[in-house]
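Students often ask why inverse folding is considered easier than folding. One informal answer: many sequences map to the same fold, so there is more than one right answer. In these notes we will look at a single instance of the problem. The structure comes first.
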């Protein structure tokens, strides 16, 4: 009665058997930490019990299912429930399958991660919930859309982004990207948690680790766009090396010869890791340690509003070239994190600002011709203090009176206590973007979500069927007067736009 299908029961037994080697390695890991702690007072083990070291393990798969469920190995590995099957009830079957595969391929890394999570003692942040979250993130990053009878189709048939088709032609692609997410999660844990001065771990810090994992994974898959599993792992290793070199240049505290890492790298259990084609090898252990002091996501604005804003996310820096006269720093970070996954971690290049470039719609539209990007952020401030706008995901230019755009088009507002609210496509129609010499509009099928007139002096915002959104402004009559308008192009990291605002920049 604990399992809804024979498949779930089989997966549970499979996971149970994979715990054997992981827990053995965790015992080795814990002993090494205790030994190392005699010489380095960097790890607090005062509250750790010795129970795990004395665990007597067996690998008898014929034992009764109730004994398997109550086995101490579950709590040792960080599973919180008395009944571990409950941890995977909510959309967790995919996470369970991926976790089994990860445990079997990389028992050493699994032991390291499981021990860290166990020592964190966060009930809702555990190895099972982490696996489920990473499986969801992997699906989002790959932009997979399930189809009927998708089990019989290659993964590429489920992918909406053409640049992932070559990567997904490999039958193991999803599990490989999931593996990459777990390795990235482990790295992010080091950067964020192990560099905390007080070593305090709470849910917010754990969430930062998961978010950083998402940023790095999105950067690799959707910005660098590898076409093979091998090149994907190569990109990951290069990013890791760049972070390592960056920390050296900043005189960060680095401990390459970590006793635990050295001992684990000599374990016979690293064979699967070292021999896995295209995957990370012993470089992973050589670069273990505290790699970066800059571990908290933050935004810094220069004194000159037109200078560069740097959004630093532990090695992946994105910039706002041209600053913002509308959005405060916390609002920028809300928007950066609220954008659809595929549109995060871009540079924002200012193309147009009403107060500087004049109140003319054609000037705004023509500014888009200075970039090859087809992704834009439109941000508006009205006379009532409403801050709102939209993500435009198709080439901005005058059309022949018809709507264009994609279902990634999104509108947003900050009208409720300066908290970001975002509205994506409802699927009810495809009235995403309308641009002529006289009007720019987002949404339709009733009221526009955003409507701007030709001189950019006034506009309107009402309930819109395209995004299932309410009015984005504070005014009850749905009309607004423009105070400031900014248009940004979203540009891949490393790209530089030659734009007239560049003279204002202070590029780091």
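Output (designed amino acids):
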């Amino acid at each position: 009665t604990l399992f809804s299908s024979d498949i779930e029961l089989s997966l549970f037994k499979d996971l149970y058997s994979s715990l054997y080697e992981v827990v053995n390695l965790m015992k080795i890991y814990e002993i090494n930490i205790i030994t190392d702690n005699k010489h380095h007072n960097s790890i607090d083990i005062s509250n750790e019990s010795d129970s795990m070291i004395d665990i007597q393990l067996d690998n008898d798969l014929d034992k009764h299912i109730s004994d398997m469920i109550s086995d101490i190995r579950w709590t040792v590995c960080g599973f919180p429930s008395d009944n571990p099957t409950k941890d995977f009830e909510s959309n967790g079957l995919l996470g369970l399958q991926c976790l089994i595969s990860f445990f079997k391929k990389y028992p050493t890394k699994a032991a390291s991660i499981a021990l860290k999570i166990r020592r964190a003692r966060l009930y809702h942040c555990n190895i099972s919930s982490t696996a489920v979250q990473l499986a969801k993130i992997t699906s989002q990053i790959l932009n997979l859309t399930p189809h009927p009878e998708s089990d019989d189709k290659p993964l590429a048939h489920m992918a909406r982004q053409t640049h992932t088709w070559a990567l997904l032609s490999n039958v193991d692609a999803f599990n490989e990207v999931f593996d990459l997410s777990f390795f990235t999660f482990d790295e992010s844990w080091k950067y964020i948690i192990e560099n905390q001065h007080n070593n305090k771990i709470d849910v917010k810090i754990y969430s930062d680790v998961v978010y950083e994992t998402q940023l790095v994974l999105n950067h690799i898959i959707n910005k660098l766009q590898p076409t093979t599993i091998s090149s994907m792992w190569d990109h990951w290793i290069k990013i890791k090396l760049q972070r390592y070199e960056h920390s050296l240049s900043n005189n960060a505290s680095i401990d390459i010869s970590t006793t635990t890492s050295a001992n684990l790298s000599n374990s016979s259990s690293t064979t699967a890791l070292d021999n896995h084609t295209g995957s990370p090898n012993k470089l992973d252990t050589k670069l273990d340690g505290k790699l970066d002091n800059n571990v908290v996501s933050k935004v810094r604005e220069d004194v000159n509003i037109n200078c560069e804003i740097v959004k630093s996310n532990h090695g992946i820096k994105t910039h706002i070239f041209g600053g913002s006269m509308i959005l405060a720093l916390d609002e920028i970070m809300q928007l950066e994190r609220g954008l659809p996954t595929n549109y995060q971690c871009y540079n924002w290049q200012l193309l147009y600002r009403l107060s500087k470039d004049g109140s003319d719609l054609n000037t705004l539209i023509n500014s888009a011709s200075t970039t090859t990007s087809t992704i834009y952020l439109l941000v508006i401030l009205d006379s009532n203090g409403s801050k709102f706008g939209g993500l435009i995901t198709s080439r901005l230019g005058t059309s022949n009176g018809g709507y264009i755009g994609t279902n990634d088009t999104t509108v947003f507002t900050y009208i409720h206590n300066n908290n970001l609210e975002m509205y994506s496509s409802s699927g009810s129609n495809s009235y995403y973007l309308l641009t002529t010499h006289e009007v720019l509009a987002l949404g339709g099928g009733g009221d526009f979500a955003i409507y701007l007139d030709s001189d950019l002096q006034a506009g309107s915002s009402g309930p819109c069927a395209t995004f299932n959104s309410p009015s984005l402004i504070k005014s009850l009559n749905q009309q607004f007067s423009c105070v400031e308008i900014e248009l940004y192009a979203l540009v891949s990291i490393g790209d530089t736009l030659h734009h007239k605002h560049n003279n204002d920049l202070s590029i780091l």
